[in-house]
Specification:
mainly beta, two-stranded antiparallel sheet, 1 helix, 7% helix
Amino acid sequence: MHLKPLGDRVIVKPTKDEEITKSGIVLPDTVEKEKKEQGEVISVGNGEKITKLGLKAGDKVLFGKYAGEDVEIDDTEYKVLKEEDVLAIIE
């Protein structure tokens, strides 16, 4: 299935990073962490504001932990973000 965001929105597939402490304990994703999330851009809308950001499919971006709407399609989780939710592009 192909998702096409409308207006100034972008579809991002979040990356799941398990955090390992120095002593080797794996902290699962359910542990409350106050850091920004990152993910890969899957699709970009055609709105004026999002076009100015220059995002394209395949870009890695940072976004807020609670930003956007969670969507699950074909057992894969995605985030639908507004242009203002995208904090940075990872180069």
